[in-house]
């Protein structure tokens, strides 16, 4: 008798805790794109903010420092990360107006910001605790909250008001279980850059209800048209604030997975939470050590991102192409992004009767071989938005949007 005839293997089902964990940026539509690539099709990937494939190469100084450090980067580092990189991050924030004093021991390095978000929410939440998260959001915040046993509570960002958060909606959604508020600024996916006045209102809500501030500021130096970024921590020296950032976007080394979180404000009331972060940092042993050696040189000296964001810079030109061409499409409107690397256009339901926006982007992929992300993948409630990455060369982006416009003109569900 063969072993397979004697034994029945128990099913291994997906655990309940994963049922509300979604990341549509790399979801089923992206999986279908990979299948099409394997069949020999060329896919234009406008689904993820990944600079390198579009010709945004890392500055040479970052590569040189990382290569030079390789012989000594073979062992584990401290669980928080190497000291020179953490000191460089302290120095970076000393240049930010009003940013509170930052202790080097309150800087943690991570394998990208994603890992640090996961660690933070695992350290913070008991089952049923709530986190206020913007809608639309960067979906990892919602996924990580659910995975940690928490309840994501989405507050509205108002497209009619430049995608600014609705402070009234936030106030209405605070409960006794609310532990923290997430502020993504500049915002992904909308490209909104919040004014100091708006951020002050958000901080005041956190102050009134003793909420932890979680500030996702990965795009803080990707700003257009003279927009100015205000760091949340600078407005809240009396509150515990965690500021997340990294090398992926501004410094164009997404694959290095080098991020950090800077912890400012009073800590005596949060000793258990901070011990939890320390514990989780230790259990992952340490961040990827070679990439830590890229941080000091990246955040110091000349910032090459500034040329890309000048009025004639490549990123600005591509943003302008996307806004112009989308706005010219029948039944499509877009709030002009003032930061980040995306546009989040709206499809007028009076013109485009879309009931299933995931089906829409899948059909676009199948017909035009263009990969974008549907708006509901960012926890936006209606199937009437798309997120499009503005990283391709202008000629490629223009051609893709022309094809997309032709597709939408004849599309129906």
TrEMBL record:
Domain (Aminotransferase class I/classII large) ranges: 44-392
Keywords: Aminotransferase, Pyridoxal phosphate, Transferase
Cofactor: pyridoxal 5'-phosphate
Entries under Pfam families matching the protein: Aminotran_1_2 (PF00155)
Molecular function terms, GO-annotated: transaminase activity
Record carries keyword Hydrolase: no
Coiled-coil regions listed: none
Keyword Transferase appears in the UniProt entry: yes
InterPro entries per the UniProt record, alphabetical: Ala_Aminotransferase, Aminotransferase_I/II_large, PyrdxlP-dep_Trfase, PyrdxlP-dep_Trfase_major, PyrdxlP-dep_Trfase_small
Family: Belongs to the class-I pyridoxal-phosphate-dependent aminotransferase family.
Name of the protein: alanine transaminase
Organism: Ornithinimicrobium pekingense
């Amino acid at each position: 008798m063969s072993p397979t005839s004697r034994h029945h293997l128990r099913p291994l089902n997906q655990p309940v805790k994963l049922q509300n964990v979604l990341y549509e940026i790399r979801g089923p539509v992206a999986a279908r794109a990979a299948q099409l690539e394997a069949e020999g099709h060329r896919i234009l990937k406008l689904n993820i903010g990944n600079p390198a494939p579009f010709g945004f190469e890392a500055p040479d100084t970052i590569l040189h420092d990382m290569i030079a450090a390789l012989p000594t980067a073979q062992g584990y580092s401290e669980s928080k990360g190497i000291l020179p990189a953490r000191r460089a991050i302290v120095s970076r924030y000393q240049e930010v107006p009003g940013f509170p004093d930052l202790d080097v021991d309150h800087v943690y390095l991570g394998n990208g910001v994603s890992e640090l978000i996961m660690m933070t929410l695992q350290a913070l939440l008991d089952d049923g605790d709530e986190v206020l998260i913007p809608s639309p959001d960067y979906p990892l915040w919602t996924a990580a909250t659910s995975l940690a046993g928490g309840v994501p509570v989405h507050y509205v960002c108002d497209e009619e008001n430049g995608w600014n958060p609705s402070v009234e909606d936030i106030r209405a959604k605070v409960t006794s279980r609310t532990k923290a508020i997430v502020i993504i600024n500049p915002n992904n996916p909308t490209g909104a850059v919040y004014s100091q006045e708006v951020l002050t209102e958000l901080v005041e809500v956190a102050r009134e209800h003793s909420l932890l501030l979680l500030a996702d500021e990965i795009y803080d130096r990707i700003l257009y048209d003279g927009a100015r970024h205000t760091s949340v921590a600078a407005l809240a020296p009396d509150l515990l604030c965690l500021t997340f950032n990294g090398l992926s976007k501004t410094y164009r080394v997404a694959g290095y997975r080098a991020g950090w979180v800077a912890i400012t404000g009073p800590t005596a009331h949060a000793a258990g939470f901070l011990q939890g972060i320390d514990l989780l940092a230790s259990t992952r042993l340490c961040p990827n050590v070679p990439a830590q050696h890229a941080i000091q040189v990246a955040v110091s000296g000349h910032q090459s991102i500034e040329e890309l964001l000048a009025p004639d810079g490549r990123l600005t030109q591509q943003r302008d192409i996307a806004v112009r061409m989308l706005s010219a499409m029948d039944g499509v409107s877009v709030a002009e992004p003032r930061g980040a690397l995306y546009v989040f256009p709206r499809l007028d339901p009076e013109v485009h009767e879309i009931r299933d926006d995931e089906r829409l982007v899948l059909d676009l992929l199948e017909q035009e071989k263009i990969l974008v992300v549907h708006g509901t993948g960012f926890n936006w409630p209606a199937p009437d938005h798309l997120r499009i990455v503005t990283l391709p060369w202008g000629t490629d982006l223009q051609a893709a949007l022309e094809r997309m416009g032709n597709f939408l003109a004849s599309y129906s569900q």
